[in-house]
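Following up on my earlier message about pyridoxal-5'-phosphate. Here are the inputs again, as you asked, copied directly from the submission form:
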Amino acid sequence: MSGIENLYVTRPMLPPLADLLPLLEGIWSRRVLTNGGPLHEAFEAQLADDLGVSGVSLVSNATLGLILALRQCTPGSQVITSPFSFVATTHAIRWAGLEPVFADIDPQTMTLDPIAAAHAITPNTGGILPVHCYGRPCDVTGLSALAAAHDLRLIYDAAHAFGAQHFGRPLASFGDLSVLSFHATKVMNTFEGGAIICHDLETKRSLDALRNNGIVDEVEVTEIGLNAKMSELSAAVGLVELPYVRCWLEARKQVDQTYRELLASVPGIDCPPLPDGLDSNFAYFPILVSADYPLSRDELYLRLRRRGIYTRRYFFPLISNMAPYKHLPSAAPENLPHANEVAARVLCLPIYPDLSLDDLRRVTDSLAEFG
Ligand SMILES: Cc1ncc(COP(=O)(O)O)c(C=O)c1O
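Thanks, got it. Here's what our run produced:
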């Protein structure tokens, strides 16, 4: 394969360096590097405006954002979550001192099934942590009714959801709290970064203190916080990127549509349709390999790798099958049949705004050729 570049599942986008330089000059002259500098405050305000919410607390990454958001649950309580996610979702529950309880996904939406979640509720349940997996919406109506009926905190892992709209409303604005990631692999990045979305200023004040070691002012520390602050440098990148995101999402949409057209004629490769009402951010392009495709999902993954096409098995293995969690009663495969099935079939293909048609065809031609 010499001379042919490797293709990866994603490739971070960056704004023109010329747009960033004036902001960097400002940082260099002010020497305010963190702790809520002017660019941090501007980025936070701009996000709150774009998302139509009253509270945004920027954080240094979504993992820490989830840990802080989960502090809203009763200490030591159980939190119901999806095993079909990146491992940070469940790790955050444990780091917040809470007990994860897995419930199955709906095989259509690939997100937490409210009926399965309802079955998992006990007198010790304090919250629900569903994941808008691939930027596809959870059943926000069903989950919100469930949380309200049992007085549970509803906290969304919205790490994949930036830029997605659900029936005209930003997906990240649902729930009591919701946590975005601006990691390098996301549709918008601040290299590392994230944001907690909330809906009242009192919660925002508490989150702002929590992300700064619980410090309220020079003499007052009210809570056991940690250092989860976003730096001024990351905020500068975020501010400069925001105007480009629409255009990047459009380019992703083209990639998504072209994949669907070219893969329609490949038997055994299913492209899960986008749900009604979703204005997608096209963050991922998952396919499901079915039994009538000649290769297993893992054989396909390896054959593509040998051609320099690095797909990812998001999300395999399930979190519930990982060493720290597989002993939990709720992790039993019988409890999670849909999650286990999807995890065994799924493969995420390369998708990013500047994926060329030739590169995309390299992927689809390989899938057709092996098929
Ligand atoms: C579903 C999900 N949750 C949480 C995270 C953690 O995000 P971060 O890398 O910003 O800590 C990720 C990261 O990829 C993720 O995919």
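One observation from looking it over: Residues 61-63, 85-86, 88-89, 131, 157, 159-160, 181, 183, 194 surround pyridoxal-5'-phosphate (CB under 6 Å). Hope that helps, and feel free to reply on this thread.
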